[in-house]
Every structure is written in structure tokens, then in C-alpha cells.
Write a structure and sequence with these properties.
Layout lengths: L4 H24 L6 E5 L3 E8 L11 H21 L4 H24 L2 E7 L9 H21 L2
Antiparallel strand pairs: 1-2, 2-3
């Protein structure tokens, strides 16, 4: 953990946040489709069981996606264990690990991912903290790539 501390800190904190929020949805929403408006017609908490990938892509692909999540997670852990990453890479890969591992946990235990963030203003697919985390990680990777290519 000494080699890439930001990677581990981001991954652990974000994974815990993801799992706690999903647990809170599971204990507070009795049925799939139950919803609670935080801002009526704009943003709701809605319990959805997603058998696909981020933002409901590849519906029904949970069986192969669980293994993909595991492989990505293991690959990132090995990378962070062996290589010294830049600060931006640590953040990027830490967020991606948290998202892949968080959704992977759901896929292995439930055969679906618990989604609940429902942005209705633009009819966006329901998503979760892990999905957000993966996207933040990708944004950091794009930034790192652009920064390196401009040197």
C-alpha cells in the first residue's frame, strides 16, 4: 500500500460508499421499482435490479460480466502492487477498481447489480455509485493521456 497510497484510499473508500448505499436501498425498498422522489420528476431513488453492465447496457449478461469484473479488479490490484503510478493514475485506477469490484460483488452474490440513482429529467438509465466511480476513473485516464501527449 505504500507504493500507491491514493489508489488504495480511493478504491477502499469508494467501494465502502458503494456497498453502503446499495445496502440502504435493499433494506428500505421492499420491491423492485419502488421509488422515492428527492426532486419530483427530476431525481428519484428507485430500486432497480440491473442484469447488464453500467447504465443497463448488455442486459442479461451478468454471468460473463461477473468474471469480467473480477478480471479487471485483479488486474488493477496487480498493477498497483507492482508499478509506481502517477498521482492521476492512482486516482483513475482506484475509482475504476472500486466500481468494477463494487458491481462485481453484486453480480457474484445476487446475479444482478443494485441500481438506484434515477435522473428522470433526461430519462437517463438508473445507475449507482460504482457506475459513477468507473466514469470518474475513465475521465482521469483521459486527462492523464492528454496531459502526457501534450508534453
Amino acid at each position: 500500500m505504500r507504493k500507491n497510497p491514493s489508489f488504495w484510499i480511493v478504491a477502499i473508500i469508494t467501494l465502502i460508499l458503494d456497498q453502503i448505499t446499495k445496502y440502504l436501498i435493499l433494506i428500505n425498498f421492499a420491491n423492485v421499482g419502488d421509488t422515492f422522489p428527492l426532486w419530483q420528476g427530476v431525481f428519484h431513488l428507485t430500486y432497480v435490479q440491473n442484469t447488464g453492465a453500467a447504465f443497463s447496457f448488455f442486459q442479461g449478461g451478468a454471468s460473463w460480466l461477473r468474471w469480467l469484473s473480477l478480471l479487471v479488479s485483479l488486474g488493477l490490484i496487480i498493477l498497483a502492487w507492482r508499478e509506481k503510478l502517477s498521482q492521476i493514475e492512482q486516482l483513475a485506477y482506484g475509482f475504476i477498481l472500486a466500481g468494477a469490484f463494487g458491481n462485481g460483488i453484486d453480480r457474484f452474490f445476487f446475479s444482478y447489480v443494485v441500481d438506484f440513482l434515477d435522473f428522470r429529467l433526461i430519462n437517463f438509465p438508473v445507475f449507482n455509485i460504482a457506475d459513477i466511480s468507473i466514469n470518474i476513473g475513465i475521465i482521469f485516464l483521459i486527462y492523464a493521456t492528454l496531459k502526457l501527449s501534450s508534453k
